[in-house]
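Exercise 7. Predict the joint structure of the components listed below.
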Amino acid sequence: MCGIVGYVGHRDTKEVILHGLKTLEYRGYDSSGMALMTNGEIIVEKKAGRIQNLEDSMSDKNFASEVGIGHTRWATHGVPSDKNSHPHYSMDKSVAVVHNGIIENYQTLRKELEDKGYVFASDTDTEVISQLVQDMYNGDILDTISKVLKKLEGSYAIGVLHKNHPDELICAREHSPLVIGIGEKENFIASDVSALLKYTKNVYYLEDGDMAVLKTQDIKIFDKEKNPIEREKKSIEWNLEQATKCGYPHFMLKEIFEQPQVVEETFNKRVHNEKADFSDILSYEDIKHIDKIYIVACGTAYHAGLQGQFALQKIAKLNSATDIASEFRYNDPFIDNKTMVIFVSQSGETSDTLAALKEAKKKGALTVAITNVVGSTISREADKTIYTMAGPEIAVASTKAYLTQITIFYLLALYIAELRNSISKDEYKKYISEIKNMPEKIQHILDNSEIIKPAAEYFKDKTSGFYIGRGLDYKIAVEGSLKIKEVSYIHTEAFASGELKHGTIALIEEGIPVVVIATQRELIDKSVSNIKEVKARGAYVISVGFEDCENLKNVSDNFIGIPECDDIFSGFLSIIPLQLLAYYTSSAKGIDVDKPRNLAKSVTVE
Ligand code: F6R
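Solution:
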């Protein structure tokens, strides 16, 4: 989704903005641009396509500037093009605006402005903001912006320059993320902290309705009514190295290989004296009356939720259901004050998840966020927040965040099980030790990652494939299938193996790859039968199972072994070869693995 950066200070503003835009690339974009305040004028440069196009077009231009804003655009209104890229000037070029979000009433506002004689240069919703600032300008920029914002419906994070205020950067947010970076004689804004890490770790997270005016030595934050307000200064723990590739060809591969470490860190953060411990977040009082848990999320986070549901039911013996965030509101969920709703979101900014969270809160549920980003909107909205310890996840396709979400779910299930007395001491001990051993076992799979390459070579020339599994394995199949779709553009479908005969087997034909996940020991024979059925129709079977599972190995064309563990934890391991399969297939096809087409890392529009 769109990314915003802004700078006021003594450095080369163009370079600071370009750096910020590059770090925000991972969010997904189709064009980029920047506006610089130069000699009392605002210069705007913008280009469709990669940031390199913008950089090239600015390479021979030397703009001395102390204030600037930049933007990566992910098209919503108007095709990706130079003219639709941000920043948007007002008609007289006195104003430039960058915007993340959607102005829902822009057509009405545009019509009103056109009736007054304003001519629009783009097809975007954003341009109404810059035109309104010109139209309503009264000499006091804060007052003007506050009046403009009152006319807008929808979501926004904005950065604004006005030529009559050449040393000021103005910003505001409503339902779209925006963070202020606090420097020495310089200040910054950005959609997320990765754009700031090179310069500062001290930040203010703006909240809905906040506006701010930044100068070189000064940051002032206001509410909607222009009353000065204070926001808590936060310090970011992530470092720049975590946000760079460290010699890996792609962030996705680096993040896959970081999984032993991030699972261990998440475990260490939550396990004290061999006990899962969430007592700083959820007390016995909080959960003793809970009789139902909903887990709500999107995409990969939703798939982590499916495993979470499995863990909560198997270990904590709690009635649990998982729903897709964009559907949750329409399903009239049965929520009362005995319901806990867990929202899973790596970014903590996903609009659908946030909207579902607000709905669940309204209905009286205890809301719990599992997120990776400290201070994110979802973390602030939820009653309780549990942080995963994945560090910055830059690749669009989620890998390490997913595994830390799963780690949290299993540990949370153990914590609740103990509080509610629904687990024996022996089982508890065994399960903690299973999770503790996961980093080493994941590392073992990664150390042997070469064995996955032949399967990727096979997959790369196919247009379609299937992922199947039973029980827990099905929940891994859906994530494996999404992963390869996202980064290799091969159409795949995941379904429960038992559903094969109920329709999908009609699609099995000569040479089609079928990935079978088969780790549930009691179900292996059934999976072997399914393999025989698809092989009889010409499928090429790639299977993932425990290393010693000879009967699975014997019927597969390509067998990928994972280390032994208790069946209920196999999802920690079986997903790793599937992530690698997606990665290797993508890179064998020469795809831009970290930034697959049409996708955005942080989906901040519904
Ligand atoms: C897939 C992927 C997406 C996200 C989804 C939710 O690899 O990354 O499916 O999982 O957009 O994002 P978050 O977790 O930020 O709410």
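Discussion. Residues 298-301, 345-347, 350, 353, 397-398, 486, 602-603 surround fructose -6-phosphate (CB under 6 Å).
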